[in-house]
Amino acid sequence: MKDKILKLLYDSDDYISGAKISEELGISRQAVWKHINTIRKNGYMIESINNKGYKILARPDLCNKLSVTKYLNTKFLGRQFIHFDELDSTNAYIKEIANDYTDEGLVVLTEKQLAGRGRLGKQWFSQNSDGIWMSMMLKPEISIFEVSKITQVVAAAMYLALDELGISCKIKWPNDIIINDKKICGILVEMNSEENHINYIVVGIGINVNQNKNDFNSEITDIASSLKIEGGKRYDRAEVTAKILNHFEMLYREFCKGNFEKSREICEKNSYIIGKNIYVIKNGEKINATVKGLNENGELNIVYEDGQKENLIYGEVSVRLQ
User: Fold this and answer.
1) What pLDDT is recorded for position 150?
2) 217 with 102, same domain?
3) How many domains does the chain have?
4) Do 180 and 214 fall within a single domain?
5) Which residue stretches of the chain have pLDDT < 70?
6) Which pLDDT score, from 0 to 100, does residue 196 have?
7) Do 118 and 261 belong to one domain?
8) What is the C-alpha separation between 111 and 134, in angstroms, rounded?
9) What is the DSSP string of 126-151?
10) Which residues constitute the domain of residue 46?
11) What value does the mean pLDDT of the chain take?
12) Would the CA dihedral through 274, 277, 282, 284 be positive or negative?
């Protein structure tokens, strides 16, 4: 009942009377008053005025369904939404419950993620509620050989969402978002399949949003940052979440129709590493190369120092410092 009252308050542009809430939900006005007081104890600032009703003046900084839906204009993505205060891993949780969902579009988001990880098993620091730690479940009817492209579709959506917020960023192929030479976002795509059939895909996204510099330990302080540090202000995490989902659904639907070009163009135009010297890690060996561009499949065109050319599908790529 508390969530239903909150939704009415969120959906109302002005004050909503206790009588209307009572009528809508089929409960007494006394019950409405008790639920409002409970909601206040959960961190919401709700004003009540005689003959006008109730209105939310301020809400806690939570990325729950109600706060995200306020900014959401998707058709399916995020319409099924599970929110946790704390969770080991949003990707792992979706894999546990994936068989319970027929349709795609489920989003799982947690305020604190205790066992976040990135590509190649690397740890992702996500044990505070100042970031966005979420995963999406997808069930595209595509070839398993096309799945690797989804990482770049997500990266392109991230670029568009941050650009809409007035934030300039770069995409480090294939899965990192960079601002001022520091990483603020990582993307992890995992697939569950049988032979040539995709059962589901889990897209994990970790974004540093409102962390301060002293929130990062000494091992990553020189390479990691947050939107707040780089933008100089706090950001509404629910709004950032919704904008990412809005842009991703648009690009993802195009991708599922066979149109990967728009996402590829965004990733190439806003690449962090095209034209730079890098090293490619293969079997633990670092090999120097130069990045020339992205081909039509989103593969990284590189040229090694000996002149040999290669298209990288995936792998560990690091910018070589000059």
Assistant:
1) 97
2) yes
3) 3
4) yes
5) 116-128, 315-316, 319-322
6) 85
7) yes
8) 9
9) --STTEEEEEEEE---S-GGGGGGHH
10) 2-58
11) 89
12) negative
